[in-house]
Write a structure and sequence with these properties.
Shape: elongated
Strand content: 5-15%
Strand order of the largest sheet: 7-8-11-10-9-12-13
Largest sheet: 7 strands, mixed
Number of helices: 18
Number of strands: 13
Number of domains: 4
Structural class: alpha+beta
């Protein structure tokens, strides 16, 4: 009976499965022309056998001191397939790759239990790095690597038809350098004239998936919304968060997409970012996000240790709720509303509890927070290296491109705004009309409107603990 060939641990290596179900490695050629094989566990096992050169006429010469491992063929084939995919630069997430190869190779549960994913992660990550250059130490070094032809695969899209790297902005000498990650497919979406034109942008920064070792301060994300779906457009790795750095990045984006001219921009309240957006898009209106504003007010109250006071004191609870709906007021009435809350706090004797919260302002936006969370999920590493980060950007770009393909068909646009959001809109609209007509006061406005933000306030106040509504 001929021996069965199995894949070894490394490329171009192999082992042989005998009729006794034990596994062997080549040892030496005997004087009679037969080949001597020894057990793969030869350091602990004396087992030997011999075969002809065509791997027939199996003859055991020394007995083994252990039972045969019947799962080794499947274990080695699964490991080899995973390592080869990683060496080829496959950016599929490890968990998904492991499941795909198990199905393709028909690996049994008993064999998979011998080589779980947790034991393979380090080897798979090392295999991915084999064909990659050494990790860069600055944005300038990363820019040089990504521009080289031999490393184009590092920034190539999943389907191999596009690249997610668009170039650099700013100056390394002035420490305002940024790297722009946007594919040509996303640029075409941003360059549309009429149908599908980008009319609204959402801008926000995050530091969670920032690549380590690059001296990067943040990842600046620019996205839009189509039929209530978040569409990520641009990722920017920024060295600094100065006015010059933001403006240089925006000028680079405008040169790549000259027809980009949004009507509205929802951004956080960082002064440098707002200044740069105002300079780059003169005709656009800058807005904030009410949901995340009120949520962050609740989170700030929790950090200040106000939860027990809010729970026990009705006046503190009401004033915190009033504070969350200030942005719903007309612009000319916001300061008046803030003064009304301060006077109410003094009148009811709770000013000492409210003073720190009244000084607080928030910097976040709604769709951008959703985009930030999706990017963190795609990178899947808390402190990634730059290749892990680019892999996450590539995965997100592919998912976004597929979503755009789906959304071009009106039949597929199934997502609708929740009824609660529509009801809140009608409430704010009716209150605004009454306020403009002089039928209600600013105090009455914020008192009634504060109930529209109660859910987001509770989200921020509860944090990660169990639900506790106020």
């Amino acid at each position: 009976m001929a021996l069965i060939e199995g894949q070894g641990m490394r490329p171009r290596t192999r082992f042989w499965r005998g009729p006794d179900l034990h596994d062997y490695h080549d040892n030496r050629v005997l004087s009679g022309g037969r080949i001597s094989l020894r057990c793969v566990n030869h350091k602990q096992c004396p087992g030997h056998c011999s075969v002809f050169r065509d791997r027939t006429e199996f003859r055991e010469t020394t007995c083994h001191n252990h039972d045969p491992n019947v799962h080794r063929l499947q274990v080695r084939s699964l490991r080899y397939a995973l390592m080869e995919r990683c060496r080829r630069g496959d950016q599929t997430r490890f968990k998904k790759m492991y499941a795909e190869e198990r199905v393709r190779l028909k690996i049994s549960a008993q064999a998979a239990s011998r080589i779980p994913l947790v034991k393979l992660r380090t080897a798979m990550r090392r295999a991915r790095l084999e064909n990659r250059p050494r990790l860069p130490r600055s944005l300038k070094d990363l820019d040089k690597i990504l521009r080289q032809g031999q490393y184009k695969a590092l920034s190539c899209s999943l389907d191999g038809k596009d690249s997610v790297y668009a170039g650099r902005a700013g100056s390394a000498r002035q420490k305002n350098m940024s790297l722009i990650f946007v594919s040509k497919r996303m640029l075409r979406e941003m360059n549309r004239r009429k149908t599908g034109k980008v009319k609204e942008l959402f801008c926000d920064a995050t530091s969670c998936p920032t690549p380590r070792g690059l001296k990067v301060s943040q990842v600046w994300n620019i996205s839009t919304v189509r039929s209530h779906h978040v569409i990520p457009l641009v990722r920017v790795l920024m060295r600094k968060r100065t006015k010059e750095a933001y403006l240089a990045a925006l000028e680079k984006i405008k040169s790549l997409a000259p027809r980009l001219n949004p009507q509205k921009i929802m951004t956080d309240y960082e002064s440098a970012e707002q200044w740069a957006l105002g300079r780059a898009f003169l005709n656009a209106e800058l807005h904030g996000c009410l949901f995340h504003y009120s949520k962050a007010i609740g989170a700030k109250a929790r950090k200040l240790g106000m939860y027990k006071v809010i729970k026990k004191n009705y006046h503190v609870r009401s004033l915190v709720r009033w504070l969350t709906c200030l942005p719903s007021l007309p612009v000319a009435s916001i300061k008046k509303g803030l003064r009304e809350i301060a006077r109410r706090a003094v009148k009811k004797g709770v000013a000492e509890h409210m003073v720190k919260l009244l000084q607080y302002w928030v910097r976040t936006t709604n769709a951008s927070e959703s985009d930030n969370r999706m990017l963190q999920d795609a990178v899947s590493v808390k402190r990634p290296n730059v290749w892990d980060f680019i892999g996450g950007v590539i995965e997100m770009e592919d998912a976004t491109y597929c979503n755009l393909k789906v959304l071009r068909n009106p039949v597929n646009r199934l997502r609708r705004r929740p009824l609660s959001a529509l009801a809140n809109d009608r409430t704010i609209q009716a209150l605004t009309e009454d306020l403009d007509a002089g039928n209600i006061s600013v105090r009455k406005f914020i008192k009634v409107a504060s109930y529209t933000t109660l859910r987001s306030l509770n989200r921020g106040l509860n944090g990660k603990k169990r639900k506790r509504n106020i």
